[in-house]
Amino acid sequence: MSILDLEVKISEIEMKLNEISLDDQEEIEELQQQLNRYKKRAYQHLTAWDHVTLARHSKRPKARDYIEYIFDSFIELHGDRLYRDDEAIIGGIAKLGNQAVTVIAHQKGCTTAENIKCNFGMPHPEGYRKALRLMKQAEKFNRPIITFIDTPGAYPGPEAEERGQGHAIAECLREMSNLTVPTLSIVIGEGGSGGALALGVSDEIWMLEYAIYSILSPEGFASILYKDGSRAQEAAEVMKLTAKEYLNRGIIEKIIKEPIGGAHQFPQYVFDQLKEQLNRYLSQVKKMTTRQLLNKRYKKYRLIGEYDSLNR
Length: 312
Prior knowledge:
Blueprint: H1 3-19, H2 25-44, H3 48-55, H4 63-70, E1 73-76, E2 89-96, E3 99-106, H5 112-117, H6 125-140, E4 145-151, H7 158-162, H8 165-178, E5 183-192, H9 193-197, E6 204-208, E7 212-214, H10 218-225, H11 232-239, H12 243-248, E8 254-256, H13 267-285, H14 290-303
Parallel strand pairs: 3-4, 4-5, 5-6, 5-7, 6-8
Antiparallel strand pairs: 1-2, 2-3
């Protein structure tokens, strides 16, 4: 039974709970126990495709939700000073306790209208140029940079290519690798393609438990590898795109635990965890010199993808 089937079953039980009389305590307890059993079964043995489904869940908290709950204040800054403001990427200056930081994030919408406004979280070149402008500003004023990654990928339309999509992403990759301030990236949902990587060349990368990170979507991967986009579920298994896979390979440093059912079931649980971990991280990186920071970053990315022919 897939996670979608189990979620339908869970919804049916929840509807029964709402319909029965409060006086029938025995039936309520029985249904609640049944509900807990289904939830545990659903989330104990998730497939890679289940992770994709959860990462794309429409009710999953968006970047603005994290910013609103985690930071004490946030001043949003707009525009790339070249073309326009891209609402698929938001960014600005935030406070976490007494520490000022620069926050940059992919933004998806909760409704169809919001998704159209922010282009379903797929940035244009001006979005990445805005991100780069904010990164350089953070470096100038010695502010740590925190990015929230949640995008299926950069917008692939002809107008984006005309305005230099590839160049804008490449600039972000190059400049992030050389920033002299601490950087941290958190994958909160989908981390797709170069559109995600443009905000992800950080000192540390964290992922939420049910988030995904990949070179492209499973549908795109299946279309290329199998010449059949309908084999996306099979492709997801091959891609090794889950947080656990990335931690095992040393690509990310931390997995942020999610409640059973995903972050949207109990967002405050995730927000509180992240806030505590961010405070701890910022306290640690304060003690590092610029040279130590750059050396650590360099070693991290030199080790990624290292292949040991003796242990293949």
